[in-house]
Amino acid sequence: MRCNHSRCGAMTPVLFCYSILVTSHYAHAAPRSVDMLSQTAPNASDNQPSLERHIMRRDEVERKTGFKRAHIYNLMKEGKFPQAKRIGLRAVGWDSLEIEQWINERLAQQA
């Protein structure tokens, strides 16, 4: 049986089909991983403040700010970035409203 997905091509056996592998791999992953798949390309909603308060994980904070992990933690250490909140034994997150406020303050400084 051959795959007929445009990404794989007609000669790829279904067992090795890229679309099936990715779908089956992420089907059992945490919802956060599935969200990452659906948000690979930036969209208009990233530029507008979110309407509801939620806990942002590091990958979302990196997307919003354009900063990488090391820079975020250096800014937190200097007191120039909102502090992460512990949400589990090894997990941290940021308050979305604090991040939005921090971004708006930076934009206002440049205006």
Describe the model:
With 111 residues, this protein is mainly alpha-helical. The protein has two domains: 1-41, no CATH class; 50-111, Recoverin, domain 1 (Orthogonal Bundle). The protein contains five helices and three strands, in the order H-H-E-H-H-E-E-H. A three-stranded antiparallel sheet has the order 1-3-2. Strand 2 and strand 3 form a beta hairpin. The longest helix is centred in the C-terminal third of the chain and has 15 residues, at 96-110. It is globular. The model is unreliable at 18-41 (pLDDT under 50).
**Total E-strand runs:** 3
**Fraction of residues in H or I helices:** 40-55%
How large is the count of helical segments?
A: 5
Quote the average pLDDT.
75
Low-confidence stretches: 18-41
What's the CATH class of the largest domain, please? Mainly Alpha
Order of helices and strands: HHEHHEEH
- Strand percentage lies at 5-15%
How many domains? The number is 2
Within the largest sheet, what's the order of strands?
1-3-2
InterPro entries: AlpA (IPR010260), Prophage_regulatory_activator (IPR052931)
Signal peptide: 1-29
Protein name: Transcriptional regulator
Keywords: Signal
